[in-house]
Every structure is written in C-alpha cells, then in structure tokens.
Amino acid sequence: MTDVLNPVGENSADVPEYPMARVAACPFDPPPELRTKQVEGPLAKVRLWDGSTPWLVTRYADQRALLADPRVSADITRPGYPSSAPIGSGGSHISFILMDDPEHARLRRMVTAPFTIKRVEAMRPTVQKIVDELIDDVLAGPKPVDLVEAFALPVPSLVICQMLGVPYSDHDFFQENSKTIIKRDASPDDRTAALGRLAGYLDDLVGAKLENPGDDLLSRLAERVAAGELSRQAAAQMGVLLLIAGHETTANMIALGTLALLENPDQLAVLRESDDPKLISGAVEELLRYLHITHNGRRRVALEDIEIAGHVIRAGDGLIMPNDIGNRDPEAFPEPDRLDLTRDARHHVAFGFGVHQCLGQPLARMELQVVYGTLYRRIPTLRLAEDLSQIPFKHDGSVYGVYRLPVTW
Ligand code: HEM
Questions:
Q1: Ligand 1 pocket, residue 134 CB under 6 Å
Q2: Can you tell me which atom of ligand 1 is nearest the CA of 355?
Q3: Helix crossing, 103-110 with 232-263: angle to 10°?
C-alpha cells in the first residue's frame, strides 16, 4: 500500500481550481481538464474558493465505493468538508442531505413514504394531466416560447407543491429564492437571506398545517412536530430541502434533456417514434447519465484513513466525487460521450450512491418518463428558435441546465 499520493504540492500553483471551466465544444460534456485528470489517475488535488485542497475522485468505481463507505461524512460543519461556497452566518444547512446517520436516517425516514415507487406510480395519471395541459397551453400560445418558463419549471413545481401542500400560486417566490441558493457566485449574505426567507415561509406553512392539516407531506411533518418528535425549525428545513430538490433538478433535466435531444435528431427520432414504456424509461436513464445536472460533485470528508485505488486518504481530507466524469468513465460506460438512448445506463450515479442516494428518484424518473414520452410526440416539429450559441447555460450554478430555451414548431 502506498502512502498518500500528492503528485503536486498543496501549495503549488499547479493545483487546478475546482469547479473547472466547462469550455468543451459540446455543452453537454464535462470540462476537458476534468477528463484529463481522470485519464491521469484515480485521485487528484484540486483547489477550492477558500484555498483548501481536497481530493478529486475521478473514477466511477472509486466514487461509488467512497459514497457507500461509512467512514466518509456528509456533515458540512466538520473541519475539512469541501464546501462549494462560504457558509454564511446562520449556516447553509439544508436539512438531512448535509447530515450523517443516525440523525440523517431518522429524518429521512419521516418523509420516505410518498416517494416509494408504488405511491409515485399512483401519481402518474395526475402528472400526465399536468403535462398534457401545459402542452395544450404552449400550443395555444404565441411562438417562439421559452420552454423553461412555460413547461420545464411548472411541471415539477406543480407536482412537488401538490405533494408537500405548498400553494403553487407562490411559485415566483420560491423559485426566485431557490435560484439564489443554488447560484454558485451568490454572496453568503444573499444565500443566507434566501434560505431564511424560504425557511420562514415553510415555517408559516407548517404552523398553518398544525391548525388545519391536509392530505400532504407538510401536514405529516406537522403531526411529528405536535408529537414532539421534530422541532418546528427542523420540519421547515425539511420542507425547504424537498421544495428545492423537488423542482430545480427535474426542471433542468427537462430543459437540458430537450436541448440534447434536439441536438441529436437521430436519438430524438428513436424517442418520438416509440410509445414503448421500456424504451422511454431507458432513454430517461441514458439522459440522466449523459447530462449530469448536479455537476459539481458529491462532497464528503474522510472520518478515518481510507485506502482507495492504492492510496491512503487521510482522516480530515475533503473528497469531491463529480458525477459528470463518473458517468463518462469508459470503464463503466463504453463510448461514454455518445448519447445512446438504447444503452443500459441504469447503473449511473446521477442520483448519487450510498445512504444519501436521491430520495426523490422514483418521482424524478416518473416525471421525466411522462415528459419525454409525451412532449416530442405531441409537438413532433419542435425545434430551437435561436442558434445553440445564443442559449445561456448555467455555468454559474450548482445545478446545471439552461436559463431559457426558446423553441418553436
Ligand atoms: C432529475 C432529478 C434529480 C436529480 C438528478 C437528483 C440528484 C440527487 C443527488 C445526486 C443526490 C445525492 C446528494 C449527495 O449524495 O450528496 C440527491 C439527493 C436528494 N434528492 Fe434528488 N435529484 C433529483 C430529483 C429529486 C426530486 C424530485 C426530489 C423530491 C423531493 C429529490 C429529493 C432529494 C433529497 C431529499 C435528497 C437527499 C437525500 C439524503 O440525503 O438522504 N430529488 N438528489
């Protein structure tokens, strides 16, 4: 066993900054510098905004091994945690996603029931109705239209609002604040203020559900508060996590996935000409693999010395596991840069891996299956209304996607 490999000194100017600039010719590909690191070796040091130098774990198998390892922590308050942005006063805790077991598991268990495959499948007709009605509106409205505004954002927002018991009429408020929270270059004060506004809003809603419970997840959390199992603040924080995670990621997958399909017309044709649910669900998995919406890496800190890929990561070292290169590792996915809707991509790490693996993945999958299985069949001539070079990509966000997607038909 070799000791920690540190090919470049931590203070060396050679340690590249992370996240790396996405300057690839193809806007769906990870930054070329990341790919180079993957070819060079399983581990590399990178430099963060605060000067710290965590390890970048470049390969799929090692990323999965570490994400499933109980010797790594997701607790953002631990020294060495490679935070993606300053933790503003008041903290940027977004509930159990940044906690370790047993508290992580205790809180997660309180909200798992509505996200089981069975419960999610029961919602499929509702989601189909939402998608159909939004497409009706798009078709009845003027051309071109911004697909983000008219379709990609409303679909998951309407669904998660219904599940949580949040009034959809407040969508401008919560979408605006969650935009600030996930913007990489938002100041700590702005991010903290946005989190505070959302937490206050969810706290009011939990209070209202205590008085007037409904058939929704916030009401179930309010019951836990009343039973003394959960503080009202923790309930509100869980609401913030579910509200943000429930719409941002899926909305970006809808818009970026549509753009990727429009840029790969042979693949779009495969999808448009089929109503085979198996092909559609396979296409969703491949798009999740290919597009890596949560592109800035799973972040963890080592609690003990860990041997991986012939090296030792020391206790207290930060770890970054970017799924964009994990999902493009040729060892796991042959010809990884080819979008191939017929490949078996189910083992991708787009939803993470281990105990923090995405809670909402059955819901996200079902929403995307309905969207990808409906949109291009109902609008078969859908096309970009501007040149690809005019499309603004979210290079500055912790969630990747496009700010707007002008389309016509
Ligand atoms: C395409 C859509 C989505 C993608 C790509 C995605 C991706 C991810 C990833 C990568 C993680 C792991 C984070 C980590 O390990 O640090 C995660 C966690 C999580 N996601 Fe998603 N997600 C999506 C949709 C959703 C939806 C619809 C919800 C519904 C509320 C949701 C709720 C959550 C929650 C609560 C966690 C934290 C799980 C835990 O810490 O135990 N996600 N997601």
A1: no
A2: 41
A3: 80
User: With a 6 A CB cut-off, is 369 part of the ligand 1 pocket?
Assistant: no
Q: Show me where the domains of the chain are located.
A: 32-408
Q: If you measure from the C-alpha of residue 5 to the centroid of ligand 1, how many angstroms do you get, rounded to a whole number?
A: 32
Which residues face 236 on adjacent strands?
A: none
Cα(190) to centroid(ligand 1), Å:
23
Number of H helices, E strands in the chain: 15, 10
For 329-339, the pLDDT digits (tens) are 999 999 999 99
Name the 3-class secondary structure at 313: strand
**Whether residue 320 has its Cβ less than 6 Å from ligand 1:** no
pLDDT, tens digit, for every residue of 250-287? 999 999 999 999 999 999 999 998 889 999 999 999 99
Surface-to-core class of residue 136, CB atoms within 10 Å of its CB (0-12 exposed, 13-18 middle, 19+ buried): exposed
Regarding the beta carbon of 253 and ligand 1, being less than 6 Å apart is answered yes
The model's pTM:
0.95
Closest atom, ligand 1, to C-alpha of 364: 27
Q: Is residue 244 classed exposed, middle or buried when 0-12, 13-18 and 19+ CB atoms within 10 A define those classes?
A: buried
pLDDT-derived band at 13, boundaries 50, 70, 90: low
- The pair of structure tokens assigned to 383 is 């096309």
Whether the CB of 300 sits within 6 Å of ligand 1: no
CATH superfamily, domain 32-408, is Cytochrome P450 (1.10.630.10)
